[in-house]
Amino acid sequence: MVAAAAIEEGKPAAAWGAVLSMALCVAMLIASEFMPVSLLTPMAEGLRATEGQTGQAISISGLFAVTASLLITTVAGTLNRKWVMVAMTAVMLLSLVLVAAAPNFMVLMIGRALLGICIGGFWALATAVIMRLVAESDVPRALALMYGGQAIAAAFAAPIGSYLGGLFGWREVFWALTPIVAINLAWHVAALPSLPANRKQNFRAMFDLLKRPYFQRGLAACMLSWGSAFTMFTYLRPFLERVTGADVTTLSVLLLMLGCAGFIGTWAAGRFIKGNVAPFLKLPALVMGGATVGLLLLGSSVVAASLFMAIWGAMNTMFSVIWMTWISQNADDVPEAAGSLMVAAIQASILVGAMLGGFLLDGISIQATFIGSIVLALLAIALIGNGQRLLKPE
Where found (predicted)? Predict the structure, then answer.
């Protein structure tokens, strides 16, 4: 019966190969976006630029991601979503080639800007595509599987990139990603079914969605939750160095542990997030905020720090699944518009959270940065309550 219903709605009954292809794309996007963090110094030296300049060139991807997430559904118009996703993956491949071969700083910036377009475009459409690949009851499990790619990249991209960069050079690390993305591109073509646009998208759909009170509250709560997370996470390294007293080896182990804990979160998301999503909405702010409190109070101990970082890392991968499931259940009539707004909101809140954390760090202390993160988490929890006010009316 489920298979028949799925076919009638134009949803392949078992498009798990396509979901896996999307998961690989997520892993490559996250790896491409954050790999330069571990290669910043050699990249700056190779391009005869300062580390500050190279860091700004890297951050430009975030700006283009926000812009692309807001524009993609309108620009794509009535194009088949399969070919839009294929195009986004092709843009990622072009970006990697430009970065790997960059003869100067300007070409690097162009490559990173193209990656930002791919990041914003992919994430804005990803949830809507997943909703069309599987039956409604399987959407949370499919989202968890897709975000498994995020856990893999978060756990291994930075340490492997740093190691290979030291052995072979930073350009070779980016060249090594290109055949994987090329395979992913071919996989998309083979596995994704035809996904005709349901209707012509425009900005009116976003504005109409923003007029819904429950969606306004949900978007604000999500932004507070993400802002809280990245106010802390962006400055986790200086905390571990100054408060925990971690050396380079200990730091690497702790960060790897945080990333690997994401696999637990991915498994838990696929197993437990079912039916009504309301009870889960406050979990990210509650658990990650609680872990931040634990680090603030007991972070001088390496053992305690590792425990709270593992808790934070596990919830970090559940975070996206929970809120994208909320979209799939509460903006199912305009999932692409909802995805665009959500991605833009997340990128903006990450940027603001990082700015707030940096201001508190430079102006007061690293402890003040963590306190700022906790305050944002408390505001998110208060706004969410039991989650019912964030659900669409029956």
Answer: Cell membrane
| Domains by residue range for the chain, with CATH | 11-201 (1.20.1250.20), 211-386 (1.20.1250.20)
SS3 302: helix
Q: What is the pTM of this model?
A: 0.73
Six-digit token string for 17: 């190969």
How many C-beta atoms surround the C-beta of residue 5 within 10 A?
12
The pLDDT of residue 364 is above 80: yes
Alpha carbons 392 and 32: distance in angstroms, whole number: 36
What confidence tens digit (pLDDT) does each residue in 255-267 have? 778 878 888 887 8
CA distance linking residue 258 with residue 289, whole number of Å: 15
Residues 6 or more apart in contact with residue 308 via CB below 8 angstroms = 291, 292, 294, 295, 298, 299
Return d(Cα 151, Cα 169) in angstroms, integer.
Answer: 25
Average pLDDT score over residue span 299-311: 91
The rounded mean pLDDT for the chain is 81
Instruction: Find the distance separating the first CA and the last CA of the chain, reported in whole Å.
Output: 26
Return the pLDDT at 287. Answer: 94
Residues, the chain, total? 394
DSSP 219-269: HHHHHHHHHHHHHHHTTHHHHIIIII---HHHHHHHHHHHHHHHHHHHHHH
> Tokens at residue 244, please?
């925990």
DSSP state of 364: T
Q: Which residue has the tokens 């070919």?
A: 83
pLDDT of residue 351: 73
pLDDT, tens only, 177-203: 999 999 999 999 998 888 887 665 666
Q: How far is CA 35 from CA 154, 160, 164, 165, 354, in A?
A: 10, 9, 11, 10, 18
- Asked if 53 contacts 44 with a C-beta cutoff of 8 angstroms, the reply is yes
